[in-house]
Structure to design on (233 residues):
């Protein structure tokens, strides 16, 4: 493996860099929402939200994996009954196997738990809004694809995808699903997103929730005249 130097110290720094790419959205809280894919996307999106003055929410999605290979996604599930499977001749076989062994059902249950825990907004609240979907990096693209297909069902005004790093091989496919795709780095053979950060810990629920609460509390402290057009999530 080629030795690569990290591009960002942590997810927060990457989020600040992404915010610069969306500078024209600063202050457009009346019609624009940042949607973080938990857990890793939350600190990235929180940094963007603070810099741009935009509302922040989560949009939960879960990968489906064979327990023998937990890091390899064979599919993903998102709100609205959206389920996607890894492309190729084995897609239908993977779907049948996951259903038969209960792997899909387990992830659907975990999806509902996260939706309630993180407070995902009802899809109807996203109708007609400009949505910016944020994650900390994309290797296989399975979970992001499920999230984007899910969000399209709720007819947003526009749908953008913002990530610090993405595997070059999947950029074309994902670009077809959004109106705008911003990736700070496109790399070959992205085997692990964490390699591009100096500090990249696996986040727990109790680390993500304070970030969401802190951002919500900060917005509530804005004087009414400065946020008169803000639509609450």
């Amino acid at each position: 493996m080629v030795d690569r130097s990290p591009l960002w110290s942590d997810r927060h720094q990457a989020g600040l860099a992404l915010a610069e790419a969306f500078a024209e959205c600063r202050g457009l809280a009346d019609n624009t929402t940042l949607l973080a894919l938990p857990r890793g996307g939350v600190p990235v999106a929180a940094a963007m939200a603070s810099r741009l003055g935009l509302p922040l929410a989560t949009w939960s999605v879960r990968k489906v994996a064979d327990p023998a290979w937990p890091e390899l996604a064979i599919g993903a599930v998102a709100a609205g009954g959206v389920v996607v499977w890894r492309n190729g001749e084995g897609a239908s076989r993977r779907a049948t196997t996951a259903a038969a062994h209960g792997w899909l059902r387990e992830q659907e249950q975990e999806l509902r738990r996260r939706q309630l825990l993180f407070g995902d907004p009802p899809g109807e609240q996203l109708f007609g809004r400009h949505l910016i979907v944020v994650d900390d990096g994309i290797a296989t693209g399975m979970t992001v694809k499920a999230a984007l297909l899910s969000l399209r069902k709720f007819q947003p005004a526009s749908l953008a995808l913002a990530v610090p790093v993405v595997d070059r091989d999947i950029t074309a496919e994902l670009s077809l699903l959004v109106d705008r795709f911003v990736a700070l780095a496109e790399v070959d053979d992205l085997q692990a997103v964490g390699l591009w950060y100096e500090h990249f810990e696996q986040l727990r629920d109790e680390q993500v929730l304070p970030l969401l609460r802190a951002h919500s509390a900060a917005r509530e402290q804005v004087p009414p005249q400065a946020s008169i057009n803000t639509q609450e999530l």
